[in-house]
Design a protein that fits this description.
This protein is 79% helix and 0% strand.
Length: 194
């Protein structure tokens, strides 16, 4: 489609590039998306905040958190560095990949810059904690949300409850499975001795 548009002599704008880049990321074609981003700039189109949001989200969604962080630091644009949506994208992406050191560093950076986390940011943090079984930290942060004037809405309650249940069930399964293995091993040893 992209080549067809350019073949017809039309000049793609930033919105067109953003749409194409997002589509490529959504089907896992990260290399093509990044190549199109480079081509966009070579054609004189200046990326906007939405472009960077799409690229950062696409990289994070495809488990390329380090690449997303490199781009984030490389751009260094004050609009990008002071944008809570961008931070939320990075926190969510790093959390999905289990990179809590990055999640914590980004969250700390928000406070240093005087940025106020929103519901999305808190939810991304809490989900990251849940994914790795840090339910106490998730609960504490959940309670701080309300204290800091950012109460979760009904959708967030449901999402967080599902994450906590999923983590709890997984942890319980591992616990009971290990106990079952211990019992089976014990029985096998008793049978072996007979």
């Amino acid at each position: 489609m992209f080549h067809e548009v350019t073949r017809k002599g039309l000049n793609p704008d930033v919105i067109f590039y953003n749409t194409m880049i997002q589509g490529l990321f959504s089907v896992g074609r990260c290399g093509d998306a990044c190549q199109l981003f480079d081509e966009m700039q070579a054609q004189g189109q200046t990326p906007n905040e939405y472009t960077y949001g799409i690229i950062l989200d696409g990289l994070c969604s495809n488990h390329q958190v380090e690449e997303a962080l490199s781009l984030f630091h490389l751009v260094g644009d004050s609009k990008l560095k002071n944008n809570i949506v961008v931070y939320s994208i990075l926190i969510d992406g790093a959390g999905k990949c289990g990179k809590l050191d990055i999640v914590r560093a980004l969250f700390h950076e928000l406070h240093v810059k005087g940025l106020q986390p929103d519901v999305r940011t808190y939810t991304a943090m809490i989900r990251g904690f849940c994914r790795v079984g840090l339910l106490r930290e998730a609960k504490n942060l959940f309670l701080k949300m309300g204290e800091r004037g950012c109460p979760p809405d009904n959708v967030r309650y449901c999402v967080l409850l599902m994450d906590i249940l999923r983590t709890s069930i997984s942890m319980m399964w591992r616990f009971f499975y290990s106990k079952w293995i211990e019992e089976v091993t014990h029985l096998m040893l008793l049978l072996y001795r007979c």
